[in-house]
Input
Amino acid sequence: MLKIAYGDNCLSQTQVFEWHRRFREGREDVEDDKRSGRSIETMTAENIETVRDFVKITKKSSVRFMEMELGIPKTIIHRILIEKLGLRKLNSKFVPHRLTDDQKLNRIGHCRDIIRETQRDENFLKTIVTGDETWCFQYDPETKRQSAEWRSPDEGNPKKCRLEKSRIKTMLIVFYDSKGIIHKEFVPSGTTVTAEYYLEVLKRLVGRVRRIRPEYRDLT
Output
């Protein structure tokens, strides 16, 4: 209704909501807030340092929120972040779990052991057998890219139904070295992977290693 009545001279919807909030909280003055005196039109050294300090404390702040808190136009803040501070706002990356300090120290120790053994024997890395587990679904629907087809202009676009991943899944355990996969097996449906179960998996792995990797026959 405000837009219809006042056209381009009307406040934006965001500004209307902001002023409504201020009036609801008891504000009566309609003048803009007084600024702290800093220049708000240029990328001054003071503004750059102000933005730098603010970002160190609140790294998740939006440019609009920083504009409200600092009194610096968001266009200037954006330029400072990109051009002067060399920052980019990146989404968080999901990881399986966070390591504790003790786990980090253990990893450092293991890495140092590997480096030391590699310096002693240049073929050491080739003798390492490692493994991993993953969930395998009974079927995985094609992605939009995977279902693309070469067609002439008069054939139109191909169609496919939207499918969800299968709820039937099983765990696959795989062990491999520098030459490739040594042993793999699926965990039977309904089986819980306990320490006892994994011990049996490792016994089968040792037998497999001795059969296909003669150089590992002295493995204990």
User: Anything to note?
Assistant: The longest helix spans residues 101-120.
